[in-house]
Amino acid sequence: MWTFFTNVYYIKIGRGYQEPIMRQTFYIILTTTVLLPFPRKLYSAMSGAVVITIDMALSAIGSSSLRKVHVVLLADLVFFLTTLLVGLYIRYLIEVMSRRAFLDRRECVESRIKIETEKNQEEKFLQSILPTHIASEVRNDIRKAIKNSDQLRMTQKPFNKLYVEKHKNVSILYADIVNSMLLAASLKVSDLVATLNDLFGRFDDAAEKNGCMRIKLLGDCYYCVSGILNKSPRHADNSVVTGLAMIDIIRSVREKRNINVDMRIGIHTGNILGGLLGLRKWQFDIWSKDVTIASHMEQGGVPGQVHITQTTKDLLQDDWYDIQPGDGHLRDAYLQTHEIKTYLIKPADQPRSRLGTPESEKVSNGVRFQRQPSTQSNCRANISKLQKRQSSNDFLPMSRRGAIGYSLHQYRKMVSQVNKIMENTIDKMALSKRDQWFSRVGIQPLLLTFRESGNERPYLNQPDPLFKHYLTSMLIIYLGITIIHVLIWSSTVEFWITYGFVLLLIIVACVFAWVGYIWLYIKKDDNEIVLSSSVLRISRTVWKTTGLRVTIWLAISSMILFCSIVGLNECLDSSFFQPFNQHNNTNVNDTYISDNTKDANCEYPWFYTLSAVLAMTTTSVFLRIHFLLKLMVNGVSLAAYWYIIDVRSEEVFRQQAAKFADWEEFDLPTDRSHCFYLTFVLLILHILDRQVEYICRLDYLMKVKLKAEQEEARTMELINRILLHNILPPHVSRFYLNKQLEEDSQRVEAYHEERCAVAVLFASIPSFADFYYEDGQNEEGLRCIQLLNEIICDFDLILGEREFQIVEKIKTIGSTYMAACGLQVQDRGSLQTEENPTENVVTLVKFAVSMMERLSELNKDAMQDFQLRVGISVGPVMAGVVGTVKPQYDIWGDTVNVASRMESTGISGRIQVTKEVADLLSASESPFKCESRGEIFVKGKGELTTYLLKTPYDEPHIQITVF
């Protein structure tokens, strides 16, 4: 269609030079440069150049009789080149807006994918540490804390709220790996972690299949509860079936590894309190007297069988169990004291195991501690080995893919699909005229205002960093108008004053708009600033202030429009043309211009129209000026031009012999043809202005949506980081994040590391067991747990202090707090990382003293007399992550066992340490003094010489400064 009309036009123009007949070259150039879908801007420019070349060639051929033909052709060339530049500029702006809209839409797609992925990841993280019934409450509270608190402190103190609920009539299962030391002795460290990871993962599968929820891993101890996630009346049967499945699982390990290991399982039914304690390393836990009974049921059980209480037996609904008297009171003093009747359930067709009870049992206040025996470590001084080994089952079912790896794999997979999603999205982008009028994208189709009025003012008040480019384009167009006027008409003093003033004004505006941008590139030192700061301030104010930009645009545009038509006044009441030959066979170019012209400024009046066309385009090059303002200014200009031509200068145009070629059949006079020509220019510019305005507003809506989605994604990312850091230490979480982005997360990795000089701390509140009481006055123990939460929160806050950044909380076990120092390394990229046992010991001792100080302060507020019993040991440990669906970071080794023994055999209100710890403190410059306690019996270790640390909280008359 464009080619057809172009050919028709040039056939007509080829008959002769059609000036003053207004040619359609302006339309063709704009159509070519702006509307035609050229793949590159270069092709658009070349096409416009071809149009100009053809027009100029035909004009030169047909204008031989025209006076000053070379001047007229040169003026035409200036007009066409300026039009070409304007068209290319408008095309560039529209393309920039379209591309930006496309990129913003792509970012929206990416952010939407990220939000979806973050939601899935958040859900998996929450499920890995919390049951579903309180996960949503925790999520909402974290989200509120992020919005209302200092985000830099979020990982330190996200919220301080008790998340504990009562659960009645549930079944509690405790399971312990019997002779687990044989696994440690026969397997390498990496194999041991992989085996435990796979073993506990299979336990998780069995528990989930039978409606049980795993609570926590305590070394080689596993415990879960049935009846929390769902209130099934079969919770007792579910627990028993889960226990039997665990025995079957450990049997397969025994046969595969040829190691004499088994499971000892105890189950009791009753009421519990379940929830979270503390601010760090959140782990769902349970408390109650019934929990203590379940723990002792495991301790008094028989390997290879399930040990249940009378309460649990009464709730069993199936009758296929092989139930026999348990006699648990003969194996556990607690069961005997409380006269608890027990039973044993033997797996079907399996002989009763004769495995003995391991020597290294640890019981304190009814809570089982670490029971991992000493392992043979290949740890060498000052060498940290960071290893990974995939599980024995390379490919696991969906339920076994960890929260850490699976969602990251899904995120990477979804991001790779963005391009495919964008292919479907591009067609739905509301950029066409039809979309402007019929698509409900949040923009009113007639006035192009936002449907949500709250978006209007922020949109209009946006800074416009492209304002300097608009002024530069205006300067180029104005120079084109000036050149045309200089070429065609005589220049007077008034002309130079008027045009010079406007030119100077535009140049000054350009300087102020550009100076700040240029100064950023040329300045080398802030102290060398010579340019006045007020100039820079004005430069920034120009593109940041909407009202100032509109004022500058309106003033300069009005002046340019005035300059383009002011010369018409000089043609008023002029009768300098010779009588016009109106015969149809008379050549227009032969009769139009008289050699006896009285006023040269009126010889080529159509150039006033062309100048007005260029002046009107100056209003459209300002991208961020409202399109209705542009329409108003151009409309006023058109009305003024129409008035001057039709009323004041009518004779000037009527004495022209020609009419517009396209209007001949309508018998329109020349002066009206000029007016209609400008009217069509106004319509074209208005259509382009509407398109640009629509794209700008659509882009703004996308930005608003993108900003909201990015904020949501950022919040979810922060939530996930908080959750992840509360599952794993920072250096371990970084390891998983980096590795899972590189590798296929369907392969489940068992992370582990060996550290040679780790200080380990156990700190318990022995009197809390007596303090805890379940009655109506303290809401069945809830008030007691609330006080325990306050204590643990205070301990967690100490970890946020700068000097304790290297202390890592491992877990809480009832009222016992476990932490270690020396697990983090500064450079994970190097195997040669310095380990400083003295620094680790001194830091952990300071931490223990700070815990005592906080507990002393809390005692005053709560009117209690709690005391800490602390045990500290130092030496090699193995750390790793076990569990896939619910990953848990833990440490094992003889150092951990000894630290636990230092606590359990210690004295309330004192810190008991090993000889190695005492020697390091003595050799250091720390103020801590130790006194020998002598030899004491430590189960699993025999007689050990231990030391008691002197602190202000055990002997008040001794003043010790703690640094």
Count the helices. How many?
30
Calculate the mean pLDDT score and round it: 77
The radius of gyration over CA amounts to 43 Å
Biggest pleated-sheet summary = 9 strands, mixed
In short:
The chain crosses the membrane at residues 20-38, 45-63, 69-90, 470-490, 496-522, 547-568, 606-623. The protein is built from 30 helices and 19 strands.
Topology, element by element:
Blueprint lengths: L1 H12 L11 H11 L5 H22 L6 H61 L2 H17 L14 E16 L1 H7 L2 H21 L2 E7 L2 E6 L8 H23 L4 E15 L8 E3 L1 H11 L6 E4 H6 L6 E4 L7 H5 L4 E5 L16 E2 L2 E2 L16 E11 L10 H10 L2 H9 L6 H6 L17 H5 L6 H22 L4 H30 L10 H12 L1 H20 L22 H4 L14 H15 L6 H22 L1 H5 L15 H56 L4 H13 L4 E18 L3 H4 L10 H18 L7 E7 L2 E6 L15 H26 L6 E14 L5 E5 L1 H11 L6 E4 H9 L6 E9 L3 E8 L14
Parallel strand pairs: 4-6, 15-17
Antiparallel strand pairs: 1-3, 1-4, 2-3, 4-5, 6-8, 7-8, 9-10, 11-12, 12-14, 12-15, 13-14, 15-16, 17-19, 18-19
Helix pairs in contact: 2-3, 2-4, 3-4, 4-12, 4-13, 4-16, 4-21, 4-24, 5-24, 7-8, 16-17, 16-19, 16-21, 17-18, 17-19, 19-21, 21-22, 21-24, 22-24, 27-28, 28-30
Cofactor: Mg(2+)
InterPro entries: A/G_cyclase, A/G_cyclase_CS, AC_N, Nucleotide_cyclase
Catalytic activity: ATP = 3',5'-cyclic AMP + diphosphate
